[in-house]
Here is the input.
Amino acid sequence: MKVPDFDFVVLGSGIAGLTFALQSAAHSRVLVLCKATLSETNTAYAQGGVAAVLDPNDTFEQHVQDTLEAGAGLCREMAVRFMVQEAPAAIRWLQGMAVGFDKDGSGDMALGLEGGHSHHRIVHVKDHTGRSIQQALEEAVRRHPNISVQEHQMGIELLTDTSDTGTFCYGVQVLDLHTNEVRSIQAQAVVLATGGAGQVYQYTTNPGIATGDGLAMAARAGAEIRNMEFFQFHPTALYQPNGEVFLISEALRGAGAELVLPDGSHFMHLYHSMASLAPRDIVARAVLTEMQRHNSPCLYLDVRHLPAGKVRQGFPSIYHKCATIGIDVEKHLIPIVPAAHYQCGGVKADLRGRTSIDRLYAIGEVACTGVHGQTDWPATRCWRGWCLPGVQQSM
Ligand SMILES: Cc1cc2nc3c(=O)[nH]c(=O)nc-3n(C[C@H](O)[C@H](O)[C@H](O)COP(=O)(O)OP(=O)(O)OC[C@H]3O[C@@H](n4cnc5c(N)ncnc54)[C@H](O)[C@@H]3O)c2cc1C
Here is the structure.
């Protein structure tokens, strides 16, 4: 076997891939490959923000409990605890990378509220948090002498072999989308950071790159895949019968927007005590149920009661998007429908990103660590009474 070209080949240039590249490049030669431009990622479309315990009146334990509740009791608690405890340091690291999270009047981090959270803990940059994170990480990656970047390079197959201890990965086969040439790149380890598979669905908030390539490559190589039956639907994508799907961030509901029926009446209190800010799966199913009951192609978000200028200033992308299709959010209801949003399952990975194949790592949305559902199915812990067919429910 020839000497590896790089220590790490990272497939994917979203928050997962670029963070890994920056954290490992101090002592390693890293190649980042992506199949579009560096900037075309799910990450760049994220609006609302990132959850972390940063308010002295908030606690890790409360964040853990909120997450377990939102996960209907199916989350792997150890993974949730790890994520919650690491979140503040991750936010500080992003600030160190020059992500300018919004501050409140006293100079502290401005913390928003989102569905399922009992406390304000969402750090954000207006309603374009993902774009700001993407830009900051890209700039740092392009400056780093140990990181090479190659755009429009599509990973198509993992290079694997077997030894006495099992299968290992030693590189990736890549299609150059400009020249149509296929070449092999060898590395000490391959990191899948290829994001989700939202494009499998007809209506999704995900951009065109989200076609589950990393998942498919890993499956073909024999890696364990888990929980692909779990796909999160976001309750509030902008309803445009013939237009692209555009997300209306949950943070808007955190700022006071209410879900309403076609006649303007509230209904979410009938489904959950947190009403419009209930966990996302409950809201998405409630919206669909009410659409069917009213034979309506969509329901609505109402922000007309909010102070004038609040949406324009706090959610400029949403305000302007609505304006381009003739919706003045201060006067009109915003039509919404649920859309496929986040792949909860994926390549089974432990908390270090290790997969069932040696030297193959999976991080970010392509990975399934159990945060969104146990990797080894717990037949008796489903709280909401809608477990998979054939799985015994505990209540
Ligand atoms: C509209 C929208 C809003 C969201 N809002 C939020 C939010 O407010 N808060 C939150 O926490 N999350 C949010 N999410 C989810 C979050 O953005 C994603 O889960 C996260 O950004 C995924 O990051 P990632 O690095 O794993 O993958 P991505 O950011 O999706 O990056 C995937 C990368 O893989 C590359 N790739 C894919 N296939 C190949 C291949 N075959 N070869 C080479 N490269 C490949 C792509 O080119 C891309 O660079 C949102 C998602 C969307 C779509």
About this structure: Residues 11-17, 33-36, 41-43, 45-50, 129-130, 154-155, 193-195, 205-206, 209-210, 213-214, 247, 342, 364-365 surround flavin-adenine dinucleotide (CB under 6 Å). The first helix runs from residue 15 to 24. The chain has nine helices and 17 strands.
